[in-house]
Write a structure and sequence with these properties.
The protein has about 525 residues and is of the alpha/beta class. The chain has 16 helices and 25 strands. Helix 11 (about 300-310) crosses helix 12.
Length: about 525
């Protein structure tokens, strides 16, 4: 069958920008500090970025990396890079130089844009990233240009504001590459396609009930699953992006008041800091504040505390491999009459599939049969649909393993309630979720094993009042060594991101099975005694 353009156009979130730049050309699109860009100006800046990249030799399929917080350049990259058919690589600003070098080399990135606050992460590795031919300084905190390359605004000036012709021929083309540690020591590059980005962005604004009057505050990092696709979704409905460089409660509440913020996304740890901010209850909201939370199951108390100050909290669940949120605790009006504690308990569940996700099950991981919807029987969450990744970049075996049986295997254990809502109970693997960041215990263990005085090590997550959980290492030192906890912590700080560094060290023998396998669950049971069990 011949596919005709009269009834088919490849889906791409780039079309959202085209429409909003036409319909809302004079409406505010982006707010940052004293800067305000209309949709017409926003589109013009993006066109300049795309044309400047093209002039610099970036072609279709090339990878362009950004190491940047939630400022306008990071948002512009989500359109300017794929406009060429190139692939955006958004890098976590909390990673170490060693980890960043691995991502740049593994992704084959040819260009790197760096906010000058984070240039110190690139300086020690600049000779280790031979594929990077273009370095651009994003001068936001000051005018310094620590890297050998042009300044961002100067770079934009080399490109025309005229739009480029559409080069997206297949909606399944790769649009972004997002690195996640997953459950192994080496990061995996999760490949998103244009179709999935388009549909998930639509799903976000539908489920979050956004429209052109909405004002979205960027408390969620754009490097996390491309901001859960809100980088594109907010633009789709012609809403306003309010950029925020650092997530500080005082600034959050100030912007809520000044800009009339209606929507924001955040990990539970951010909600904890917001709820505990002394001036929270004095905030004069111009509109209802809608909050979407994910990254780790929030405690019902956190949801209750946020709703007491006038916010409405919605729980979602997903992974990098499914473009961020895949399920939502879809609220039903019959629950409005429940008391606050019961309402918060329901809202802490992970819910049902998004409108645009459709497929989610809880199954026996061996037989792939659905578990009973009894709220008790535990199984693995599996998913499929248009918002599942293309696969892991250059890692076909890991892709096949994740897609076995025709479903994406999350590695998360959950129950299915009688009403069809899922609730996470545990992790199949040992991933630690600290403040919304995934930490691979294998990666941390491998780092510690590099220390010459370490004989054995096991890492687990332990309770933490601020971050939910943080890494703790149980270490067996080599006989005769004088190893200290500070030695290990300092050793890790020099090799991995600070948020992955163990916050506690304990020396002693490790519990093992008869075959010599370390029994991590025994360590967890001891550390979590007296606490309500959390994902770990």
């Amino acid at each position: 069958m011949i596919r005709r353009t009269v009834y088919y156009e490849p889906l791409t979130p780039l079309s959202f920008l085209n429409r909003s730049a036409f319909v809302y050309r004079d409406k505010t699109a982006v707010v940052y500090k004293d800067k305000r860009y209309t949709y017409g100006e926003f589109s013009g800046r993006i066109n300049r970025l795309a044309n400047a990249l093209k002039k610099a030799g970036i072609e279709k399929g090339d990878k362009v990396a950004f190491l940047c917080p939630n400022t306008p350049p990071m948002l512009e990259a989500h359109y300017g890079v794929p406009m060429l058919g190139a692939v955006l690589v958004s890098i976590n600003i909390r990673l170490s130089p060693r980890e960043i070098a691995y991502i740049l080399n593994h992704s084959d990135s040819k260009a790197l844009f760096v906010d000058n606050e984070f240039a110190h992460l690139i300086t020690p590795i600049k000779d280790e990233i031979p594929n990077v031919k273009l370095l651009v300084n994003i001068c936001d905190v000051n005018d310094s240009r620590p890297l050998d390359g042009p300044e961002y605004e100067e770079f934009l000036a080399t490109g025309s504001a005229d739009p480029l012709p559409n080069v997206i021929e297949d909606e399944m083309e790769n649009i972004t590459l997002n690195y996640t540690s997953g459950t192994t020591g080496l990061p995996k590059g999760v490949m998103y396609h244009h179709r999935g980005a388009y549909l998930n962005a639509i799903g976000e604004v539908l489920e979050f009930k956004m429209n052109s009057d909405s004002v979205y505050l960027w408390t969620l990092p754009m490097f996390h699953c491309n901001g859960w696709c809100f980088t594109w979704g907010v633009t789709a409905v012609g809403a306003t992006h309010v950029c925020l460089r650092k997530v500080v409660p005082e600034d959050i509440y100030r912007l809520i008041e000044e800009e009339g913020v209606t929507h924001l996304c955040a990990a539970p740890t951010v909600l904890v800091s917001m709820a505990n901010y002394p001036g929270a209850r004095d905030c004069r909201m111009k509109a209802k504040l809608n909050i979407m939370t994910a990254g780790a199951p929030p405690a019902p108390a956190v949801i209750k505390n946020m709703e007491e100050i006038g916010a409405e909290v919605t729980q979602t669940y997903g992974l990098t491999e499914v473009y961020g949120p895949h399920t939502i605790c879809e609220w039903q009006r019959k629950w409005d009459e429940l008391d606050d504690d019961e309402r918060a308990k329901i809202k802490a569940r992970q819910g049902v599939a998004y409108i645009t996700s459709e497929f989610v099950r809880v199954v026996d991981p061996v037989t792939m049969e659905d578990v009973p919807a009894d709220g008790q029987t535990i199984g693995e969450i599996v998913m499929r649909g248009n918002n599942v990744m293309l696969g892991y970049y250059k890692q076909p075996e890991d892709t096949d393993r994740a897609f076995r049986g025709g479903w994406f295997h999350s590695g998360d254990l959950a129950v299915m309630h009688p009403n069809g809502y899922i609730e996470i109970k545990d992790r199949m693997k040992d991933i630690i979720i600290s403040g919304g960041e995934n930490i691979s215990t294998v990666e941390v263990e491998n780092c510690i094993y590099e220390h010459p005085d370490v004989l054995e090590v096991a890492v687990i997550g332990i309770p933490d009042p601020k971050w939910g959980e943080v890494p703790k290492a149980f270490v067996v030192p080599r006989p005769g060594s004088s190893l200290t906890a500070e030695d290990i912590i300092q050793f890790c700080r020099e090799r991995i991101a600070r948020f992955k560094v163990p916050k506690a060290i304990e020396f002693g023998e490790l519990p093992k099975t008869s075959t010599g396998k370390i029994m991590k669950y025994r360590l967890r049971e001891k550390e979590w005694e007296g606490y309500e069990k959390r994902v770990n």
